[in-house]
Amino acid sequence: MVQPRPAAPTVKFVDEYCQWYKNLFPDVRSFEAFKYLHVGCVSDLKRKTLPEIAKIVGLDNQQGLHHFLTKSPWDIEKLRTIRLELILQVIKGRPIILIIDETGDRKKGKSTDYVKRQYIG
Hints:
This protein is mostly helical.
């Protein structure tokens, strides 16, 4: 049996964090897309769109990231379970306050990829 190739490295702390989730992904390409999206989210990109994330991580286009989000066979419930377990390990029983702000900013202009004007109020 042929061993799968190791995932391409990204930023050290992203690689270390994403390693907790590696078993959720059936192939190395899905796991790499997972890591690339994390790199894009923590980067200082003005617009965190798939085309911009693809550029910053060195991909030719955003198709792989798009397919990861829409068709990859990973289980969101398992991901949530792992994420919550990690959060509980970090806070170690300390009380926390969770603030959810869903007011958002109104969309200005027509330049954001994949987004149309929406009512947020």
